[in-house]
Write a structure and sequence with these properties.
Domain N-acetyltransferase: 1-141
Distance between the termini: 55 Å
GO molecular function: acyltransferase activity, transferring groups other than amino-acyl groups
Helix content: 10-25%
Structural class: alpha+beta
Shape: elongated
Number of helices: 5
Number of strands: 14
Pfam families: Acetyltransf_7 (PF13508)
Strand order of the largest sheet: 12-11-8-9-10-14-13
Protein name: Acetyltransferase (GNAT) family protein
Order of helices and strands: EHHEEEHEHEEEEEEEHEE
Radius of gyration: 22 Å
Keywords: Transferase
Strand content: 25-35%
Length: 246
């Protein structure tokens, strides 16, 4: 099941069966045809063909905005193939988290099977938003060990108005490499969506009990300490902690 970028002919064929299915069942993504058409223009419309006919489409390079399989080809692994291809693209492009909104709600079981977990509104009838983290692990080189604690905090924690607990805290083994930087045993990821007021995520890095930095993750100070912005995944991540320049 080869997943390939769509052509104008693929788009026309997909819209034909989407319109037909909407007329027959009153369901599907025909109402979202404008989004699908723009995806071809933007280059993030992906398809699976069978006998030169488009039988499945996806909008989005990584976490999909729309996935649809032609009605007569469902339950044949086409949705799984689309996801596997998008997951590989995300790993290749260094994306750290895939976030989706499940519509229709019945699609949640599919995404749950593929390792997604709900976040945000968890009420019974709330909008189902879900995400899957894409962790990376590393083989540590021989070197002086380091004890590293990395916490991600609400922006308010940097205001100095009293202690605020972290959103997430990671205790990670590290090893000092030749230039003195500290390579971590695994990637540490902070999610922008977890900032409770929708402000800038803050990060605190401690090495052997000493604070290396404590500031908003987007600041130059954090970047100099090894924090990288993942614009595609809506996150910040750290593989190596850089030492402060004297």
């Amino acid at each position: 099941m080869e997943v390939i970028k769509a052509t104008p002919a693929d788009l026309a064929a997909a819209l034909t069966w989407l319109e037909r299915e909407y007329a027959e069942d009153g369901e599907g993504f025909w109402c979202n045809r404008g989004i699908i058409e723009r995806a071809l223009e933007y280059g993030d419309l992906w398809v699976i063909r069978r006998d030169d006919e488009v039988v499945a489409v996806q909008v989005g390079d990584y976490a999909p905005d729309i996935v649809s399989v032609r009605k007569d080809c469902r339950q044949q692994g086409l949705g799984d193939a689309l996801f596997a291809a998008s997951l590989q693209r995300a790993m290749d492009d260094n994306v750290n988290v895939l976030s989706i909104e499940c519509s229709p709600r019945s699609s949640w079981t599919f995404w749950q099977r593929h390792g997604f977990e709900r976040f945000g509104d968890l009420s019974e009838w709330g909008t189902i938003t879900a995400r899957r983290m894409l962790p990376r692990s590393f083989d540590l080189p021989a070197g002086v060990p380091a004890d590293v604690v990395i916490g991600f905090y609400p922006e308010a924690a940097t205001y100095g108005r009293g202690p605020i607990p972290p959103i997430a805290s990671h205790h990670v083994r590290g090893s000092r490499i030749d230039d003195g930087a500290i390579m971590l045993e695994r990637r540490v990821i902070g999610l922008c969506d977890d900032e409770p007021e929708g402000k800038g995520l803050a990060v605190k890095i401690e090495i052997d009990g000493k604070v290396r930095c404590f500031c908003k993750a987007k600041y130059e100070e954090a970047e100099e300490a090894g924090v990288t912005r993942d614009w595609k995944g809506g996150a910040f991540y750290i593989d190596v902690v850089e030492l402060a320049v004297d």
